[in-house]
Amino acid sequence: MNASPPIQPTEAQPFYLEVHxxxxxxxxxxxxxxxxxxxxxxxxxxxxxxxxxxRTRDQVVREVWNVEPGTLINTRFRVTVFRIRQAxxxxxxxxxxxxxxxxxxxxxxxxxxxxxxxxLNAARRHTxxxxxxxxxxxxxxxxxxxxxxxxxxEWVLAMRADLQGKQARAxxxxxxxxCERLDCKDSIAARQQALHADxxxxxxxxxxxxxxxxxxxxxxxxxxxxxxxxLLLRTEVQDTPMPETQQLAEDIKQNHTLxxxxxxxxxxxxxxxxxRQWCGQRDLDEALFET
Length: 291
Known about the structure:
The protein has 291 residues and is mainly α. It has helices at 39-50, 57-65, 71-88, 105-109, 112-125, 129-140, 154-180, 184-197, 203-216, 219-236, 243-253; strands at residues 17-20, 26-29, 55-56, 94-97, 100-103.
């Protein structure tokens, strides 16, 4: 894929585009909503934004409009591309190369969803835990809510689930990094946020959270989380927690010792939390940052 050319506005004015897709769905061109002239043009714009490498005409037609390519629908597609370019007041806002249509890189890179993706890639490249922690925290700031929350097409739901999973896994990794720094409060908060985003990440993560809640706060907080998890499984998948999770809940209720308190004096030479035998080790897989 060739590099995108600089955007040349069709009108004699600056080109400043803001694209918000996480939590709020909004496009602003020089501070104003573009005139799309048709909802279909706006949706195709967001579809191409979701696929930075580009899509063919037939892929757009099938996945966005759920119809098979044909003479009439192909004409509709050409009109839609024209309307996107017209709305953004730039001919090179949508590029076509060998039958593949994509948004100009400058548009993609300026969107919150691409900043989120790029931030995850940057975090994966860092080997210094402190730098990785900072990059992850900055990256997660871009995730302000569900992707394209006002749309419900199948392609939107698939992309939304993918991004939500990435957010949850990034939060779990953030929780581990915070745990390593003995920042138990923020570590617990990150783990809670991750499991709220995706309760089915893995039951062992719920076990980890129960242990941390017991150590940092109280057994009552841990059991409250356990009961919510039991209710979730019962109502959504008609299932019950694993025997290990149930036993952990009973141990917490009976005040059985789970581990020593998290204090610097009890840390090993690598400054690892004494609960690390449970919390965090399984979060190290690079799949957490797959983009």
